[in-house]
Structures are given as C-alpha cells and as structure tokens.
Amino acid sequence: MLSDLRRDSATYAKLGGWFSCAGFWIVAVHRFGCWADAQPSLLRLPCWLLYRVAHVPYALFNVHLWAGARGARLGPGLCLIHPNNLYFGPGVVIGDDCLIHHEVTFGMGSTDATPVIGSNVVIMPGARLLGGVTVGDHAIIGANCVVTRNVAGGTVVMPAENRLLPRALSAWARRKGETVAKVPPG
C-alpha cells in the first residue's frame, strides 16, 4: 500500500503537489480499504469501519469506487484529474500510471464483465468504457467516447464526427409542418 501511495504522490507532484488534490486522497482511501480488507479478521473490522467513515466524502465528488474483494483494483501511479462523477464498477482493473479525467464510467455493458485498462492509459472527460473491454497500454480514449470493443495498445480512440442534417429531415419539424428553405449544397 505504501509503495503504491509513493508512486501516486510522485504522479501528483508533477501536477503541482499531492496534498491539496482530492484525487490523491480518494485513491489513498481506496488503497487503505484494500489493505484493510486483506487483514486478519480481528484487525479487519476496525480498519474496515475506519475506511467506511473515510469513504463518506466520496459522495461530495459523486465518486463510486469501492475497495475489497469485489471492488476495483487500481495500479500504482493513478492520477484522477478533477475527480467528479466517476463510476468504477465492481471488478474493474486499472493498470499503472493511468490518467483519468472527470465524468468517466467503467461499468458493465451487455455482458456482466467489467473493463480491464492497461498501463499508461489516458482517459479523457465523459468517456464510457462498458462491458468486458480491454484497453491496451499507452492508449488514449478521447472525450465522450463510448468504448464497447477492445482497444489495442498505442491507439487513440476519438468520438464519431458530428453530422449536420437539414432541419427539414427532422421528424419533429415534419410533425410541426414546418417549411424550411432548401439548404445549399456543400
């Protein structure tokens, strides 16, 4: 646990320091919970109760990250940038030195499996990784991407390009009986 926290603090030191970063403390509490879960039963109960009390502020950030046998497994050097609205499903595995932005979901999709993330992966704001997907090392998941298939290492995943359609093709506009001028080609 302590070696993982040292790696985490070294990652946050590059960003200006770990002491005032909420992401560091969220991960530190998670690591304590994992450590507490691995203790003998006599020591486990008071440590687990302390973990549950320290876990309460997660609600302020809307972070769903549980420790224990069914919780997420986080590699050392993890950095949570703006740790707001994060969901880590049960059994999610995240590799070493990953960078995760806000509004990210690691959850179950059409299967009961959960994502496995490699090392040195950057996940941008709003990304959703669903189902038993595997993301290879050194990949970048772009903002607002929905990942439902495996991603090879070193790959950059970007969301689909927006398509502009004339308003006349809108079902809502047709119901309202609107007439729309022709859109020039191009």
Your description of this structure?
Helices cover 28% and strands 17% of the residues. It is of the alpha/beta class. The protein has a 5-stranded parallel β-sheet. α1 (2-13) runs antiparallel to α2. It is elongated.
Fold topology:
Blueprint: H1 2-13, H2 22-37, H3 41-55, H4 58-61, E1 63-64, E2 73-74, E3 79-80, E4 86-88, E5 93-94, E6 99-100, E7 105-107, E8 116-117, E9 122-123, E10 128-130, E11 134-135, E12 140-141, E13 146-147, E14 156-157, H5 171-176
Parallel strand pairs: 1-4, 2-5, 3-6, 4-7, 5-8, 6-9, 7-10, 8-11, 9-12, 10-13, 12-14
What structural class is derived from the secondary structure elements? Answer: alpha/beta
Distance between the termini: 59 Å
Largest sheet: 5 strands, parallel
Mean pLDDT: 86
- SSE pattern, N- to C-terminal: HHHHEEEEEEEEEEEEEEH
- Which oligomeric form is depicted? single chain
Indicate the radius of gyration in whole angstroms: 21 Å
